[in-house]
Write a structure and sequence with these properties.
Strand order of the largest sheet: 2-1-3
Shape: globular
Number of helices: 9
Distance between the termini: 13 Å
Bound molecules: manganese (III) ion
Strand content: 5-15%
């Protein structure tokens, strides 16, 4: 659950209200994911792009009388809310999720229950990677590719446009994300330019499989 800090808004005595969200710190240094993702990309992505989603989400929420206890709750009913809440709420959730999925010296193949679940759903880790890479490559323009647990409790690969995600009621594929990759150009252009496939390929060297296991629950 991504909880906001409700102190500031509570102090304004606004009822009903939603939490005020803040930029979470990265769990590693900006240069920690080199050479796969460069320091400047990480710094701009976190301090400019992600910060802007947080700032604009809080602004959009301040213009409503919405009451929600968490970002997940907001995303679950985003069809009835403004495009600004959809785009920036998705942006804040997706990036908060994404940073934790990576770590220095990550990657390799998953073990334990993640490996079992992937093998059961996709046949092998190699087949899973192939299908996930296809989802990441076929997303036209900006968006995300996901591994999620769907409503039937099964692992599934999907992609969403812009900052949408499977937690949103507007998503074609709904469920609980366990792994995801940002394929917006801002995630890779400084180092990889138009070569999205090279970025996606390098990203596999960073996966924090312990976090994926925690997401799987
Ligand atoms: Mn991004």
């Amino acid at each position: 659950m991504i909880m906001g800090n409700s102190t500031a808004r509570a102090a304004e005595n606004l009822v009903p209200h939603t939490p005020e969200f803040t930029l979470p710190p990265l769990p590693y240094a900006y240069d920690a994911l080199e050479p796969h993702i460069d320091k400047m990309t990480m710094e701009i992505h976190h301090t400019k792009h992600h910060q802007a989603y947080v700032t604009n989400l809080n602004k959009a929420l301040s213009e409503t009388t919405l009451h929600a206890d968490s970002l997940e709750e907001i995303l679950s009913k985003v069809s009835g809310l403004s495009p600004a809440i959809r785009n920036n709420g998705g942006g804040h959730w997706n990036h908060s999720f994404f940073w934790k999925l990576m770590k220095p010296n990550g990657g390799g193949a998953p073990a334990g229950k993640v490996a079992e679940a992937i093998n059961q759903a996709f046949g092998s880790f190699a087949d899973f990677q192939k299908q996930f890479n296809e989802a990441a490559m076929k997303r036209f323009g900006s968006g995300w590719a996901w591994l999620l647990v769907n409503g039937d409790g099964k692992l599934q690969i999907a992609s969403t446009p812009n900052q949408d995600n499977p937690l949103m009621d507007v998503s074609d594929t709904k469920g609980k994300p366990v792994l995801g990759i940002d394929v917006w150009e801002h995630a890779y252009y400084l180092k990889y330019q138009n070569k999205r496939a090279d970025y996606v390929g390098a990203w596999w060297n960073l996966i924090n499989w312990d976090q994926v296991a925690a997401n799987l629950g």
